[in-house]
Amino acid sequence: MEFLSSRLIIRPRDRERSLAFYRDALGLAVYREFPGGTVFFLGNGHLEISGRGHGPPDPDLAIWLQVRDLDAAVAELKAAGVPIDKEPKLEPWGLVESWLTDPDGIKIVLVEVPPEHPMRRDSRRPGG
Q1: What is the rounded CA–CA span in Å between residue 25 and residue 84?
Q2: VOC domain spans which residues (predicted)?
Q3: Is 1 helix (H, G, I), strand (E, B) or coil?
């Protein structure tokens, strides 16, 4: 099996409210639009807002978004009026994280990977 692309699909209760949040507050760029849906660039993936949801989000679901400078990202969000649920903090696993919630209650974790973190190292052996 070969996977060529991926995207996360959100079915919001209020599409316009969610579009405004992801487009205007988070500043995601639009990848494409189609009748009833909008797809945003999301780093190496895509986020689709389409259809209409009817219930609360799964509490076990979270969107993980890596940013270059977490303090700057949080300041930008606060300036846009986005409430921050958890201020940036270095976690025991070595990532700096901050949490917020989208208009439908989906948790979003913003992550900064410090320079010394293993995710930043090339673990391949020299020569191969």
Answers
A1: 12
A2: 2-113
A3: coil
Alpha carbons 121 and 118: distance in angstroms, whole number: 5
Alpha helices in the chain, H assignment, sequence order: 15-19, 70-79
Q: How confident is the model at residue 127 (pLDDT cuts 50, 70, 90)?
A: low
pLDDT band (50, 70, 90) for residue 105: very high
Residue with tokens 């993936």: 45
Dist. CA 75–CA 100, nearest whole Å: 13
Average confidence (pLDDT) over 64-87? 96
Task: Give the CATH number, domain containing residue 50.
Answer: 3.10.180.10
DSSP count for the chain of H helices, then E strands: 2, 8
Q: The domain containing residue 8 runs over which residues?
A: 1-55
Distance CA 64, CA 51 (A): 22
Closest CA to 110 of 80, 81, 72, 79: 72
